[in-house]
Design goal:
By secondary structure, the chain is an all-alpha fold. It is built from four helices and no strands.
Length: 95
């Protein structure tokens, strides 16, 4: 499948989720499907963007240092997930 078709499928899945409130079968790669299911189960609003304030540089550096082991372990999975959602107006967040 071409990259453009792949991105179209993800956009289509997002639109169906927003319009119907349910995930379409077979449009998303398994890791993204599971992630979206978890978001739905926790009650995250599909159509709302989170309101956040950026952390100050010193706070961000301190948090990265305290969580360096977690970041190192999570990075390969985060990169894999990101490769599936690049250019889809989605993001991967480690929390």
């Amino acid at each position: 499948m071409s990259r453009s078709n792949y991105l179209h499928q993800i956009r289509n899945a997002r639109e169906q989720l927003q319009d119907r409130g349910e995930l379409p079968d077979g449009l998303l790669p398994e890791p993204i499907q599971r992630s979206w299911e978890r978001c739905i189960e926790t009650g995250l609003a599909v159509n709302l963007r989170p309101e956040t304030e950026p952390a100050a540089t010193h706070q961000l550096n301190e948090l990265r240092e305290r969580n360096s082991r977690l970041l190192t372990q999570a990075q390969p999975e985060m990169e894999s997930l990101y490769s599936h959602i690049a250019n889809t107006q989605s993001m991967v967040i480690l929390s």
